[in-house]
User: Fold this.
Amino acid sequence: MKYFTQQWKKPLAAWVWAFACAAGVVSVCSRSSFFYPLNNWGDAQCFFTVGKSMVRGQVLYRDIYEQKGPLVLFLHGLASFVQRNGFLGVFLLEVLAAGVFLWFCQKIMALYGAGSLRFAALPLVLAASFSCPSFQMGDSMEELCLPLFAAGLYLGLRALRENRPLGWGGALALGVLCGAVFWTKYTLCGIFAALGLVLFVHAIYRGGPKAAARLTAGFFGGFALACLPWLLYFGLNGALGDLWQCYFYNNLFLYGSGGSLSLAGVLAAVTNSLAYMLRLNWIFAVFAVAGLVWFVFWPGKGRGIWERVLVLACAVLMAVGIYGAASNAYIYYSMPFVLFVPLGFLALLGPAQILLKQMPLPAGLLSRTAVAAALVLGVGYALWHSPNRQAFLQPLEQTVQYQFKQVVDQSEDRSMAMLHLLDGGFYTVCDVMPTQKFIGVFNLPLDEMNRQMETTLQTADVEFVIARTEEEDKEQYKQEKEPAILERYELVADGTEEYLRNRGYSTMHYYLYQRRS
Assistant:
C-alpha cells in the first residue's frame, strides 16, 4: 500500500491518470470525439466556424458575429489547425480541459486527507457529470471553464486550509483565471466574486490591511493581464466599438431580455432554474448537493469555518450569476455545478478507505484493482447513460451534412448561408468559409442579422442556402417560408436528422437550395 501511494504522489503519474480518465470519458460522451460522425450542436459548430474565421484574418464581432467571448473562440480557431473539416482539435481541447479539471479535483481531495483511492473517484466524477443531459453534445463554454473553476477553488481552499492570506502569486493567478472566464462568458464569473470576497475578508482577519491590499492588487493585476491581449486585438483592429456592442451591450440588454432584476425576481429565477436543472441532471445533482451539504453543514473537524463559508459562497454566487437575470435558462447552464460533484465523492472516500483496510487481501492490490476498475466502470457507465449514445459509431456518410456535401462539391461556387437556423455542421463538413457576418440566426432581435437574411433572398448573393424545420412543422414551413426562397433558389437536396434536445430527440428536416442559373 505504501509503495502504491508513493507512486501517486509523483506529479507525472497524477497527470497521466487524470488525462487517461478524461480521454476515456470524453471520447464516449462528446460528439466531438472520433467515435461520432460529427458534433452537430449548433453552438459548438458556431464556435468552431467563427474561431476558424478569426484565426484566418476576419475580425471578431466586426467581420463575423458570435455572442461568446474571444478567448474560447480563438482556442477553437487553433483547434481548426489540427483538423479543418472536423472536430479532432476540439476533442483534444475538451480532453485537455477535462484532464486539468480532474487534476485539480484530486488536489482538492488531497487537501482533506483523501488517499490514493481518490484516483479511483476521478473517472466516476467525470462519468456521472458528462453523461447527463446538460453536457449536451459536448464543447459548451460551461464545460471548457470547469478547469478554471476548479483551479480557483483549489487556490482558495489551500490558502484557508493553511490559515494564511492568499499571497501575491496566488492572487495574481486567481485574477488571470477570472479574466479567462470573463473573456469566455462573463456570467460565469460569480464563483470568482465569491472567492475574491471571502479571501479578501480572510486576508484582513489574518494579515491586516496590507495583506488585503496585496491580495487586491494581485487579483486585479492578473485580471488586467488577461484583458490586455483582447483590448490590444480589438483596439489595433479598430473594433473596440464592435466589442462593446456585440459582447457586452447585446448580451446584457438584448439576449434573453425579460429577466427580473428585483431581489424577489432574482431569487425566483435562481430557485426555479436550479430545481429544474437538478431534476433533469439528477445523477450528478445527487453528488453535487450531497457534497455541498456534507462539506458546508456536516459536523467534522476536517473543514474549517472559512472553508465552509467559501464553498457555500461559491455555490450561491455561481447560481446568481448564471440564473439571476436570465429569462431563458438553457440546459447546459447547469454544467458549472459539476465543480461540486468531487465533494460528494470526497465524502465517500473516508468510509471506503476504512472498508478497504478491513479486507483480508493486500491493501495495495485492492487499491490498484479499485483504480483500474473505476476507469472501466466510469467509461462504460458514461457510454450507457449518455444521451449521445444513439449516434455512437454512426458513419459520417449517413449524416445529412455529408449528403449535402456531395451536392456542394459539384459546384465551382461553394458559398453558402444558413436561414432560420444556427449552423449544424455544414460549414465544417463541406469545408466552406462563411462570406457573411452572421453565420446563422442568433437568439437576438438584431436588425442587421434580419437584413442580411432578406438581402440573401432578394439578391441570391451566395450559391447555396440551407434551411431547417422540425418534421412535424414541415407543411407549415413549405407554405410560409419556402416560397420566398424558391424565387431565386431551387431545392436540390433534403434530409432528416435526429437532433438532441434536453433529454430526447427531435426529427429535424433540412433543405439545401442552390441559386437558379
Strands lie at 416-419, 464-470, 489-501, 504-515. The first helix runs from residue 2 to 8.
